[in-house]
Amino acid sequence: MAMLRYNVDVSKGLVNGAIGHITEIIWPCFRRAQISDTDIPSVRIDFGKDGVHLIQPKAVQFPAKYSHGTAERRMLPIILRWAYTQYTKCSVVLSSMPLYT
Q1: Concatenated DSSP letters of 1-50
Q2: Which of 15, 26, 32, 101 has the fewest CB atoms within 10 Å, i.e. is most exposed?
Q3: 2-4, strands of its sheet edge to edge
Q4: pLDDT tens digits for 26-81?
């Protein structure tokens, strides 16, 4: 399972926290032929009721340390999802939850 870490397309339901199954990894060239940092694979994820979508790598720019310009990072906006509780599975964010002992 994988979880999105960025709002890719809100109208399609591809928002931060959406959970799906990776169905395909698409490499731009053969793995052994990758020579640059831009050769990041795309992934196809099945989000259930929201359908199967292709997630592309995303470039994020942020200020570098000590005011030395900007730095850019290219990455897939997903993380692996190993376990989840019923509360995250239902896409509910709770500010507090009572515990009964």
Answers
A1: -EEE-S-SBGGGTB-TT-EEEEEEEE-SS-GGG--STT-PPEEEEE-GGG
A2: 101
A3: 52-55, 42-46, 19-26, 2-4, 78-80
A4: 887 666 666 665 678 889 999 988 889 999 988 888 888 887 888 888 888 888 87
